[in-house]
Amino acid sequence: RISSQMIARMNKDGKIEKFPKPVIHGQPEGYTSHFRDPKVFEKNSQLYAILGAQNENEMGRLLLYRSQDVVDWHFEGEIKTNLTQFGYMWECPEYFRLGNKDVILMCPQGVEAEGDKYRNIYQSGY
User: Fold this and answer.
1) What does the alpha-carbon distance between residue 65 and residue 124 come to, in Å, rounded to a whole number?
2) How far is CA 14 from the centre of its chain?
3) Which residue of 37, 73, 75, 101 is surrounded by the most CB atoms within 10 Å?
4) Residues with Cβ within 8 Å of residue 6, at least 6 apart in sequence
5) What is the 3-state secondary structure (H, E, C) of 79-115?
6) pTM attached to this predicted model
């Protein structure tokens, strides 16, 4: 399986145009096909996309892409966190500003329970 990211644009009349080719075709080297859920946002006149991913060691990660025009995307790298082993896949990333802070959320899959901590099946908000 090859994971790809597609786009569509809506014109001012509400008509949707789907682009025929992926704007990001396949995951970067070192990551599995668990590569999805782009969160696109603008910051400092640049477009960015954060994608949920799994690395080849089966650990969840977030990847950052950058674009000038929403069509040509460039892989910037992995978003560094202090989380080493925290689930086998991170999905559904979210980014927003809260006051003067940047906030990133994601939903990790496969986090082991520690007593009552992380006991819920569907983790979110780390």
Assistant:
1) 22
2) 27
3) 73
4) 18, 19, 22, 23
5) CCCCCCCCCCEEEEEEEEEECCEEEEEEEEECCCCEC
6) 0.88
